[in-house]
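During the no-cost extension, the postdoctoral fellow (Dr. R.K.) reprocessed legacy sequence entries with the updated structure-token encoder. One reprocessed record is reproduced below for audit purposes.
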Amino acid sequence: MKNTFFSASRRSRPFLAALGLTLALASSSCNNFLDVPPQGQPTSEEFFKNQNDATLAVNAMYGKLREWSLVAFDWLSVTTLTSDDAEKGSVPGDAEFLNEFTFFRITPTSGPLEGYWAGQYQEINLCNQVIQRVPPINMDATLKARYVAEAQFLRALMYFNLVRAFGGVPLHTKPAQMPEELNPMRASAAEVYALIVSDLTAAAAVLPQSYPSTEVGRATKGAALALLAKVQMYQKNWAAALTASDQVIGLGYSLAPDFYEMFRIRGENGPESIFEVQCTTLDGNCDASNSQWAECQMVRPQFGWGFFNPTRDLENAFEPGDQRKLGTILLRGMTTPDGDVIDPAAANPRYNMKAYVPSSATKACGYGRDQNIRVLRLGEVLLINAEAANELGQTAKALAAVNQVRTRAGLAPLAPGLSQEALRQAIWKERRVELALEYGDRFFDLVRQGRAAQVLKAKGFVSNKNELMPIPLSQITLSGGRLTQNPGY
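Re-encoded structure tokens follow.
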């Protein structure tokens, strides 16, 4: 399949003006019947000629981040329903296939699984286009290096999503030129992690700490280092996780004073924000105003579709007086701080407050199109720092980091004298309530902590199987059997 660019209408909001741009690329999901020449659109070989082309290609990477498979049903099924934080929601009979993920009845033919896999690889292909085809362009050298670094950061984020879900996956590091390059063998998880660390290390050395207001939302040095710290934590490389998180903490971020306010549109890209998926309504172009992350989760039928609801177990996980509960759990019948009365007859008792957009907000293209998705922020980095410090026996440092998060939540600090194990459990609990229903970490956290079988047993979790998702059968078929299936599927 040839590579084709599409442009979208623009508006005067930061660099989001070009985020309607997207790219149809060859990927591991291409079929021969789709391999037709584009009509009236430049191929990638014709396109990468000047600095403007490079800018459009980079913006295409960011635009893809808010597309359905990366933020809506496919994403939320794999990352959120598999945890103890969420249940299907909506009404009985509606999208019952989602319960395949709720109760670990996932099969290689589960639809959201295919979308999740394909979405990550489509984004990786966009990144590879920039990494391979921008360097030869005659353009500003500093901007060129930054564009490549932005692509490396986003490619690392996608591979991190893939390796946590599937284990070792095929590594695509350049645009595919030959048919056999579309379907490489699975790399090991260690090889995938090595590429992620390499990309993030390279990106952190080049990316700036901040951007002018017209460029807000692009990957920064802090974003690369924060993701690097998280990746090292998942590999239990505690010294590396501590070093990277220390670097982020030293860059000048600060905790937002109000947890609820941080997740409103007015709180986007605030002092705590490190990286967010930038979502916006593009005037006159609803096709490009396509994030449905908020709409698919919000109160049915008052605002949205009512899926992916907080569980009672999550609601009960908050300590009395924890201000994060208001910022996380939206109850039917309540009046929000923004003055919306939530329908007392709503279909479900709880909804994700982090996806709530007040009724006063614009809905020109649908509910919540301007609600950014928080990917990395200082609150998480502090908890990574605390966990790494505790694992290295640096108790005082661990307490100092975790207690910053607790203090912002209105809770008393953890007292000195906790054992390493007790502090570990406390940090894990803080991580759950701090990041609940945000960027889909809870299931993956339970797996890396070795607690998934215990915590998720009642949902049908099977040890030595459900730690990983099955490889989509369609991808195994397309590979001619070169892709191998995960155990138990």
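The chain is about 40% helix and 5% strand. The radius of gyration is 22 Å. The remaining legacy entries will be reprocessed before the final report is submitted.
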